[in-house]
């Protein structure tokens, strides 16, 4: 047993090669992280996706894959698309509130100018 | 060749069984839809995820998986997590604008009441 094997190689019960594609992103002290992406995408697909990316973008790709996988495990029907819908609803509500507030300002300004006009009559 | 084979069974070059788990959601006239989810998740994982869900939720699950897969193909580093970040930024901007507008209203109301107060002095 090599205590320095990454979480992926431990999970897959294999030797962790020096140029392991998983090793920089799946430290042995966080086995859940690999288990999540493996469960949703499969180790082979994750490895393939990482190998197709420039090394400097792989850490961010792993984080976003982990995030999506966690969302899919928590919500097997909608995954993080459910979160996108919620955010879109929230934006729409905030935009509606903004439009109403801006309309209130306009009405207040009209009333104010009407009052000023009547004062001078 | 069975012309009624679903897009998944065509892609996997296999017979489409009567109880095919893919068939209701991957019609033969849309081969791209299956190709996308297969490329990101693999047919086996998609089949496993669908089989773990009640039948009435599977159509929505397929749509969200296709959406996530398409996002991942278009943006291999961030996938649809990139979209979530954009939406969160948009919400923050709209909230800031709303807060500014509400502050403007408060200032205008204070000025208005000060004016009215001075008129009666």
Automatic annotation (TrEMBL), chains A, B:
Pfam families, alphabetized: LOB
Domain of life: Eukaryota
Record-linked InterPro entries: LOB
Transmembrane domains' residue ranges: none
Family to which this protein belongs: Belongs to the LOB domain-containing protein family.
Alphabetical list of PANTHER family matching this protein: LOB DOMAIN-CONTAINING PROTEIN, LOB DOMAIN-CONTAINING PROTEIN 4-RELATED
Listed name of the protein: LOB domain-containing protein 24-like
The species this protein was found in: Raphanus sativus
